[in-house]
Amino acid sequence: MSRSNQINNYLSIVIPLFNEDSNVDFLLKSLEDNIKPLEVTYEIILVDDGSNDNTWEKISYASNVNPNVKGIRLARNFGQQNALLAGLSNAKGQAIISMDGDLQHPPMLIKKMLESHKQGNLVVNTYRDDYEVAGFIKRRTSSFFYKLFSFLTDVQIEAGSSDFRLLDRAVLNHLLELKDVDLFLRGAVNWLGFPSTTIPYTALKRFSGRSKYNLSKMMNFAKGSLISFSTKPLVLGVWLGIITSTLSFLEIVYMLIQVANGKTVPGWASTVGIVSFLFGVLFIILGIIGVYIARIHTALQNRPRFVIREIIEQQDI
Q1: Residue 224: is its pLDDT beyond 70?
Q2: Which of 50, 115, 249, 282 has the most neighbouring CB atoms within 10 Å?
Q3: CA–CA separation, 240 and 237 (whole Å)
Q4: The whole model's pTM is what?
Q5: CB 182, CB 224: distance < 8 Å
Q6: On the CB side of 178, how many CA atoms lie within 13 Å of its CA?
Q7: SS3 of 298, please?
Q8: Which is higher by pLDDT, 13 or 253?
Q9: Among 85, 165, 153, which Cα is nearest to 123's?
């Protein structure tokens, strides 16, 4: 294969995996079937995010028989975003594609993404149509999250966004410089502001296994993303304090007027209700402040986002 026949990219594909041993073989076969006809030099980086099944054994075997496969094993489960970041940090390509390992991100879209990159798009995002594979509640909550995120952060992210994207090396270098405690990659890429385009696709069904994102993980993911990119919740707390203080002041004025006119002040139940409401608002504001203080504490500890236990590769590509 002559250099002149190659696309002027060196392709890296980064895939975080957590307990996906049943998907590894078919995933690699599907990737190879779609990449080889493109005649590009490439590497496939599989990141084991602390799996407790045979995922790492599958990655190790694949790396031993295929020089294009590189395995990274994290010391424990650091979460999907940090595992993806570990892979991106070790990617050597000029064009870097990140995707999930459950085959819901179709490998056949890689060709189109590379073509878009050749046209000068430094970021190639994808738009997911998941009507056939996601339930009504999942679709609605996802749509609500992205609308809320866009409103609170002024960083626009459309519903249907995911971590299935292509980044140019220049974009990735800037992305890796960000030091956020909870780095929300979708928001961070949009925040950087490089020229981009979006390619729609239809999400496929998982090849096997079940999604590892339960309700608790999704809530923590949403909370970390919003707090990482916005201080508007703190401003909201200020406005809640102003509104409730105004209502309380008006209540006090009303009571003083009633007393001055020689009337008793009725409605002890309403007074107790207002006081309880004010304390509730106060605790909400304190909770918001506490979340931000906790993030400051975590940032000051300056701990790494991930710890690599070992790296396996047959040779440099």
Answers
A1: no
A2: 50
A3: 5
A4: 0.73
A5: yes
A6: 21
A7: helix
A8: 13
A9: 165
Distance CA 162, CA 74 (A): 23
CA distance 78 to 5: 40
Cβ atoms 90, 155 nearer than 8 A: no
From residue 134, alpha-carbon distances to 90, 99, 106, 165 in Å are 32, 18, 16, 20
CATH of domain 7-216: 3.90.550.10
Q: How many CB atoms are located within 10 Å of the residue 43 CB? A: 21
**pLDDT over 50 (residue 103):** yes
| Residue 88, C-beta contacts closer than 8 angstroms, at least 6 positions apart | 14, 96, 98, 167, 172, 175, 176
- Mention every residue, 6+ apart, whose C-beta is less than 8 A from residue 56: 48, 71, 73
pLDDT bucket at 75, cuts 50 / 70 / 90: very high
Out of 136-140, 219-223, 253-257, the most confident range is: 253-257
Q: What is the token pair recorded at 121?
A: 């798009």
Q: Is the pLDDT reported for residue 204 higher than 80? A: no
List the one residue out of 128, 299, 133, 118 whose CA is nearest residue 210: 133
The tokens of 273 are what? 């209700």
N-terminal to C-terminal alpha carbon distance within the chain:
15
Task: Show the tokens assigned to 196.
Answer: 């981009």
* Whole-angstrom distance, CA of residue 316 vs CA of residue 277: 63
Task: Check if the beta carbon of residue 184 is closer than 8 Å to that of residue 225.
Answer: yes
Dist CA 220 CA 310 (whole Å): 28
44 bridge partner residues: 13, 69
Calpha distance 88→174 (Å, rounded): 12
Whether the CB-CB separation of 237 and 152 falls below 8 Å is answered with no
For 28-31, the CB contacts below 8 A with 24+ separation are: 28/62, 28/66, 28/69, 30/103, 30/107, 31/107, 31/110
